[in-house]
């Protein structure tokens, strides 16, 4: 599903963000990516959806070598990858329904299929009753649930989440994790960068720890391993 082979990333200012990363993530896995601030987690995550390119090395996503695809083909690649950010990135002038539907409209899905699929995913994240609300009428947790609904409306094989609970209170964070677990139970691969020690240590999944651009731990049902 996801494979990196000897991946290096050096930014123009000379900072080495990734220093020889090799890893394989299988279909259906749930993987936490942990490590200190500045360790290279965000760069590692961005490589998977071609937000960043490696300086050297090979990255395969769903059998596609990201080094070989043209920039014009990146949107097509991302149709099979759901992305959830810490700051939601919702369109403020669109309703909940419209925010989620937008991902299907850009690929010219039929109106009938759009309505069916949008309502299905809003039901999954328990926001069907707020389909006509606008983002500023929602709590932070509700906005993140809309973001998750938008990320899975295309039935992606992979969902990549970058600190999805970072701006949320503890109770809301657990609600968001429940949704991610249900998505994973349906066979979707989840890769989540997080600083949330309690979540990682409670909901045990595979843990990849990155420090100074290198993978220092890769454990099945691992622990967070850093001070809170």
Automatic annotation (TrEMBL):
Q: Name the PROSITE patterns on file.
A: ABC_TRANSPORTER_1, ABC_TRANSPORTER_2
InterPro entries, A to Z: AAA+_ATPase, ABC_transporter-like_ATP-bd, ABC_transporter-like_CS, ABC_transpr_LolD-like, Cell_div_FtsE, P-loop_NTPase
Domain ABC transporter residues, every copy = 2-228
Q: Which CDD domains match?
A: ABC_FtsE
How does this chain sit within the bilayer? Peripheral membrane protein
Keywords assigned: ATP-binding, Cell cycle, Cell division, Cell membrane, Membrane, Nucleotide-binding, Transport
User: Subunit arrangement?
Assistant: Homodimer. Forms a membrane-associated complex with FtsX.
Q: Under which name does UniProt file this protein?
A: Cell division ATP-binding protein FtsE
UniProt source species: Anoxybacillus flavithermus
Gene that encodes it: ftsE
């Amino acid at each position: 599903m996801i494979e990196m082979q000897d991946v290096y990333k050096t930014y123009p200012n000379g900072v080495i963000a990734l220093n020889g990363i090799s890893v394989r993530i299988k279909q259906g896995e749930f993987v936490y990516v942990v490590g200190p601030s500045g360790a290279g987690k965000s760069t590692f995550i961005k490589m998977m959806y071609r937000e960043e390119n490696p300086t050297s090395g090979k990255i395969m996503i769903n059998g596609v070598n990201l080094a070989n695809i043209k920039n014009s083909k990146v949107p097509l690649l991302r149709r099979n990858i759901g992305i959830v950010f810490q700051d939601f990135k919702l369109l403020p002038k669109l309703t909940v329904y419209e925010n989620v539907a937008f991902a299907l409209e850009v690929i010219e899905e039929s109106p009938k299929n759009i309505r069916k699929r949008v309502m299905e995913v809003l039901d999954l994240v328990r926001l069907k009753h707020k389909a006509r609300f606008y983002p500023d009428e929602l709590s932070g947790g509700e906005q993140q649930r809309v973001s998750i609904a938008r990320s899975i409306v295309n039935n992606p094989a992979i969902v990549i989440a970058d600190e999805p609970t970072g701006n949320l209170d503890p109770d809301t964070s657990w609600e968001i994790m429940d949704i991610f677990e249900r998505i994973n139970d349906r066979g979707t691969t989840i890769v989540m960068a997080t600083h949330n020690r309690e979540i990682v240590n409670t909901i045990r999944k595979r843990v990849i720890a990155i420090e100074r651009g290198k993978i220092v731990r890769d454990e099945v049902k691992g622990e967070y391993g850093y001070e809170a």
